[in-house]
Amino acid sequence: MNAPTDFLRVDYPEPHRDRTRALLAAHPEARDLCGPTPSSALVVVTVVAFQLGLAWLLRGQPLWLVFVVAWLVGAVANHTLWVLIHECAHNLVFQGAAANSWAAIVANLPIVFPSAIAFRKYHLLHHAYQGREDLDADLPSPLEARLVGNSAWRKALWFLLYFAAQLLRVPRLKAISLFDGWYVLNLVVQVAFLAGVVLAAGWTALAYLFLASIFSIGLHPVGARWIQEHYLTFPGAQETFSYYGPMNFFALNVGYHNEHHDLMRVPWSRLPALRKLAPELYEPLHSHRSWTRLLLRFILDPSLSLYARVTRAPAGTGEARAAPESAA
């Protein structure tokens, strides 16, 4: 089977609004699961301190050891911080947006790239406009998909450089203003923090954090999360997929992605309860059980490529119709 040479372009709405209505109609008590979890702030502080401690212990160590520890441990820890930044983006740590923004900036520290505030901007639009080519930063650009193609080594390189691929998507999203006071604050705090790391622990410590940051969203089993969530790895029109494997323990249940899209105000700690509450909605859906298997499959299977995504044209360019039943 050959890889597609274009995205699956549709003219029906994304499926989550309809499933949210069905969920709340059948289970109005699901609303009781919504609301912030302030204890997540303790997880932020713990994981940040853990990463700084590891960076300190690795100062002056050989680079091969730094590389190994960054892949085996640092990537998982930084991925956990990405999940916590995601919680902050939805105001699920504290009540107010400002407090959540500060928590996200703290969680951002070991991730090297000043991304917490930018993620908030782009991610909320991903929920509101899933699949919209002009507003969904989760979508690869046509040029990105064409350059990567279905070559195994190019897909592996894309994973490794996924942080750069995300940066290159920004110019495409012309309707989104990136720079504001919060973004500048995120940038200034991050630069000051990285300078402090170098002064206190040296360049090797910074190299550890940099490698852990790259692996946490790239060529690592946790990087398969970006494929798991919306890439069309099963037949049919379903366009959002959950992961129910053991890595959810370290990834704070971020694998429960259908559940998250359906009710965004449910924090990570209560997403399994949401699935348990409405098994009739979630058990029939395709899902993943192994990020490692998915990572290898996506890289090695020539029938899979970055084109395996559902996309929607910008507003006003087509008439929307009802989503097919299999998409919900």
Can you walk me through this structure?
It is a single chain. By secondary structure, the protein is mainly alpha-helical. It has one domain (8-314). It has helices at residues 16-26, 40-57, 63-89, 97-108, 116-128, 142-148, 152-160, 162-169, 181-201, 203-216, 225-230, 257-262, 271-277, 279-282, 291-300; strands at residues 8-10, 242-243, 287-288, 310-312. The strands form 2 sheets. A two-stranded parallel ribbon has the order 1-4. It has a two-stranded parallel ribbon with strand order 2-3. Helix 2 packs antiparallel against helix 3 (63-89), helix 3 runs antiparallel to helix 4 (97-108) and helix 3 crosses helix 10 (203-216). The longest helix is centred in the first third of the chain and has 27 residues, at 63-89. It is globular and about 55 Å long.
- Main sheet specs: 2 strands, parallel
Query: What level of helicity do the residues show?
Result: 40-55%
Overall geometry: globular
Number of domains: 1
Average the pLDDT over all residues and give the rounded result: 93
* Strand elements, count: 4
How large, in whole angstroms, is the Cα Rg? 20 Å
